[in-house]
């Protein structure tokens, strides 16, 4: 490329969405992009002293990076990080194959489970088969991750139900002090994780490290379950779960997000049940609540 001092005065203006005009040379633009070459061959509007080419719909800095590439065939990693997707679109629209290949590789390297859906839609518009295939694989990975997270949140929801069930009615060997626990050797059939929660409760009571003020990972799990219950419970004053009302505290953004996802997982699980099954569970829940109000004192 010739030095800037050897170039003539710019004879075209590139208009961006923000209203900024970028001066450029029509000969260079036409040499690299056949689309811009065709635009350049059109007659200038009557009464206009200069040619203006609008490149809209993308950030001004992305247009600047695109024009610079047309001049020197270079694209920095910083530009690719910030405007890789925009440059991919521009390279497709204005038929710049070298930049399109560069952007395809750059976007592919930065593909994540968070942006894969947007990039996948873009690949269909920009005809990038290699990137399209990678997006499909990444989307499959994203769905697998979402299902895994959904199972985890549903397990936490089940754990909360077990905790309330144990503190309200008692089950097997753990229960409230004023209710005689069942004598059967196994936990109730409804809550698959009931036995695990009972073991955590027993451990919390007997843990020597907790008694010394240190605690352990199992103690922390139990405390987190208690805190999660407190964050979701709508009736802390009458709740039988220990420390429910005292655990109501200011929560950070991550904790609130966890609470939201656990509630969402439970709601989705309920919606996936057959209608008759949902009605049976609703009647059973109402019956347990009425029984609890008659049997236990409030505090």
Automatic annotation (TrEMBL):
Statement: the UniProt record of this protein carries the keyword Metal-binding: yes
Occurrences of domain BTB (ranges): 10-79
Signal sequence range: none
GO molecular function annotations of the record: calmodulin binding; zinc ion binding
Any one Gene Ontology cellular component term annotated for this protein: nucleus
Keyword hit for Repeat: no
InterPro entries recorded: BT1/2/3/4/5, BTB/POZ_dom, SKP1/BTB/POZ_sf, TAZ_dom_sf, Znf_TAZ
Database matches in PROSITE patterns: BTB (PS50097)
GO biological process: protein ubiquitination; regulation of DNA-templated transcription; response to hormone; response to hydrogen peroxide; response to salicylic acid
Pathway: Protein modification; protein ubiquitination
Pfam families per UniProt: BTB (PF00651), zf-TAZ (PF02135)
Keywords of the record: Metal-binding, Ubl conjugation pathway, Zinc, Zinc-finger
Entry protein name: BTB domain-containing protein
Species of provenance: Gossypium raimondii (Peruvian cotton)
